[in-house]
Design brief:
Shape: globular
Structural class: mainly alpha
Number of helices: 25
Largest sheet: none
Strand content: under 5%
Oligomer: single chain
Radius of gyration: 24 Å
């Protein structure tokens, strides 16, 4: 049996550069879905893994282990598809769109919607739940107000991932704290220094962009058309807002995501029978195939036609293929070799933070998994943070400033695939409008270079001289002198 050796840097880069070229060319030039390009990239990664000594069984194990870590997320994707279908059939999504068009001012829609998404994701600890519930409704409201769907989707993703990032209930928040081996609440407190200012800047930008949308520019006929179609097709009632409230209540009660979403789906089904006279068979069909709009008004049918398990299979298959690619890179140690190379460029706190964030984004791009984008840099850089006298929750904060916030920015990443499928907007279309994800890394790196909110360890043991260092070169000199 061939012996596995440590890859050379050029061997590690071939699958990554190859994937970037294959996917970008396929999606931008050929304008095809990313699934088959990722399969081709996975074959390339497998061939390179064989070259460095991996057996087929090791390659297979790498893919299977990567998929296994995401099984719960894949189940959640299917349940969210069922939830969306049941909520549309029940009239809950139409009701949120109907009342939203009545109550939300076009001028303040973007910042208001962003805050609403943030509240939902803080309460539930899930950007996926926020995007699949209030996010879907906001997409409908934005369409009615004549706002660019890509802009609305970017706003939804910004709000959803702000809440997901700072919520103690969030999986990614807990994973980042665990990867850095730090206290969860110290981690959350640390994130406030970079995330809150970034969120405020994002809100200001959404407000400025939204100023061009006012009552005089909005097509009132469009709004009237949508509201009439919704009220004609569904029995609109404030009671239909109860299913979304159920999600918030179960979150407060700390009910896990899967049972919480299933409960909300069941409530949606019950409300569909009560308020829309749907039959049990209608509900089962919608859970499987999603809701199909039949108002004969294109803009409304496009808003309503969504959901169902089958509607999420495109997303699930994309996530599985992408995870196979990431699993091979991890098993063949390609990722490890690249990260070791990156560490060589760390010479100060600022460069350390910048390198950690870039590494997290690179992991989002290459490994296609949000959790790995926090775990791998966390395990690679923790010793460097320790050597420079930095607190572990400073590391965990930096992991999230890159890895967590950039996970929805790539269509082959599980988060990007999910948000794109749920909101009905291609990932690269909403990319420029996810202001929080674009701003937060810049804020974090700037603060590190300026020495703002840099958390250092405080050693007070008697007889120990505490020396703060700004870079690794200085640390090495101190060690040589001692």
């Amino acid at each position: 049996m061939a012996k596995v050796r440590k890859p050379k840097i050029w061997e590690a880069l071939i699958p990554i550069i190859g994937m970037a070229i294959i996917i970008v060319y396929s999606m931008i030039v050929l304008k095809i879905d990313p699934h088959i390009p990722i399969v081709i990239s996975t074959i390339l990664a497998g061939l390179m893994a064989l070259k460095v000594g991996c057996t087929w069984f090791e390659i297979r194990d790498g893919m299977v282990e990567s998929i296994y870590r995401a099984v719960e997320a894949l189940v959640i994707v299917m349940i969210v598809g069922m939830l969306i279908g049941s909520w549309v059939l029940a009239g809950s999504v139409p009701a949120m769109i109907f009342y939203g068009l009545e109550l939300i001012s076009p001028k303040y829609f973007l910042p208001t919607g962003c805050i609403l998404c943030a509240i939902v994701s803080v309460a539930t600890g899930s950007a996926w739940t926020s995007g699949g519930t209030i996010g879907v409704a906001l997409m409908g409201i934005g369409t009615g107000l004549g706002i660019n769907p890509a802009l609305t989707a970017g706003m939804v993703v910004s709000g959803a991932y702000f809440g997901d990032k700072i919520s103690p209930l969030s999986d990614s928040t807990n994973v980042a704290a665990a990867a850095a081996e730090t206290d969860l609440y110290l981690h959350v407190k640390s994130m406030m220094y970079t995330t809150v200012p970034s969120f405020i800047i994002a809100l200001v930008l959404y407000f400025i962009v939204g100023l061009k949308y006012n009552s005089s520019t909005v097509n009132l006929e469009n709004i009237t058309l949508i509201k009439n179609a919704l009220s004609t097709t569904f029995n609109i009632s404030p009671w239909l807002l109860i299913p979304p409230i159920v999600v918030l209540v179960t979150a407060v009660k700390k009910v896990p995501a899967i049972p919480s979403l299933l409960i909300a789906t069941i409530v949606g089904g019950i409300f569909a029978m009560i308020f829309q006279n749907a039959s049990f068979v209608d509900i089962l069909n919608v859970l499987q195939d999603g809701y199909v709009g039949e108002t004969n008004i294109v803009i409304v049918d496009k808003l309503l036609t969504r959901g169902g398990v089958n509607g999420m299979l495109w997303t699930i298959s994309l996530i599985i293929f992408a995870l196979c690619f990431g699993g091979i890179l991890e098993k063949a140690r390609f990722t490890e070799v690249i990260l070791e190379k990156l560490i060589q460029y760390v010479h100060s706190v600022g460069s350390l933070v910048a390198t950690t964030i870039v590494t997290g984004i690179l992991c989002d791009f290459v490994l296609t998994d949000q959790y790995l984008a926090n775990i791998i840099p966390g395990r690679m850089f923790y010793k460097v943070y320790d050597d420079m006298g930095l607190e572990r929750y400073y590391l965990s904060r930096t992991l999230e400033d890159g890895g967590s916030l950039w996970s929805p920015m790539f269509p082959w990443n599980g988060c990007g695939a999910y948000q794109s499928a749920t909101l009905g907007v291609p990932t690269f279309s909403y990319f420029p409008y996810v202001f929080l994800s674009l701003i937060n890394p810049i804020v974090s790196i700037f603060m590190a270079y300026m020495g703002i909110a840099v958390f250092r360890k405080k050693l007070e043991k008697e007889g120990i001289e505490v020396v703060e260092v700004e870079n690794l070169d200085e640390l090495d000199q101190i060690r040589k002198n001692n």
